[in-house]
Amino acid sequence: MTAGRHPAGPHDGGTDARAGATTEDGPRVLVVRLDSFGDVLVAGPALRAVAAGASHVTMLCGPQGAPAAQLLPGVDRVRVWAAPWVTETARPIDDAVLGEFRALVTEERPDVAVVLTSFHQSPLPVALLLRLAGVRTITGASVDHPGSLLDVRLRPGEDLPEELPEPERALRIAEAAGFRLPPGDAGRLAVRHDAAAPASVAGLDRYVVVHPGASVPARSWPPEHHRALVAAYAERGVPVVVTGSPGERDLTAAVAGDTGIDLGGRTSPAELAAVLAGAEVVVVGNTGPAHLAAAVGAPIVSLFSPVVPAVKWAPYAPYVELLGDQTAPCRLSRARECPVPDHPCLSGVRVEDVLAAHGRLVQRVPGMTGRSLGAGTGGGA
Fold it and tell me: pTM value?
């Protein structure tokens, strides 16, 4: 089986998240992406393609990705299931887990399932469960021969070139299943805008967002660098909003210091989207909020650790300045803890480098030319 259309003979109760047009006579489609917040966000264009040809779209996510799915246009319902083979969910495979999955699929009644995975993941475990649950047509990308588990199979490296950005990879999987973006949709990342920024941010004329956290230490710029950056912006009269998850409150407080506005753990994903959308520039590592910043159209200074390839995972947006040594020894290691002493891929990035990248973005983004960060920024700022 190769890429193309081949005809084939305790959950949370679900959450409505309708925000895209679906057809009345199309199939009911279950789109599966079981890992993190950012992974689900980059599936957005594929979701919109499916929605354009489906009568109903259910997004099946893991607990980490579900908040992102709530923001995606084109999704009619979000369901949550913690897959035992996903790193963040240490669950045993037993009859209860399998019964939970079967009940969820039975309730959603999909005609078609589209399984979205990254290059290092296999769709076959969930494809097996989908087949056992009675789903008739399943599409996915698999290095391994899928036997009867996939009706439409894409071959990584052949149908899906290794250098494809993740949003484009997901879109190609959806296209192989028979779903294409509607006319006028350029395939960029996008989220719904239905929340306001907190009052402490909404009244600012200009501000920069600094997001110091990352899912693993190997992807983090040192906290002291972030703190120095906030202080440097303060010296130049530019307000800084420091964002982070509830588990990062200590980090955001330390980075914000006495001059930054600390929003660590104080925003919902929708509110964070609103904060990022209003920023002059977002400074962020390779973590989920970087993809959220791309989805709201913010200019991004990306502090990108090369443990994963930037060509696939850098923010999928037109205005990005990528910093970090992409040839460092940790390159493509997928390391969670930095395997190289002193974390050189990111620790070598200076505050001055970030300010210079900010200055270059100001010159590139329409409507921002003429803004200044004051002396010493470099890059024409």
Answer: 0.90
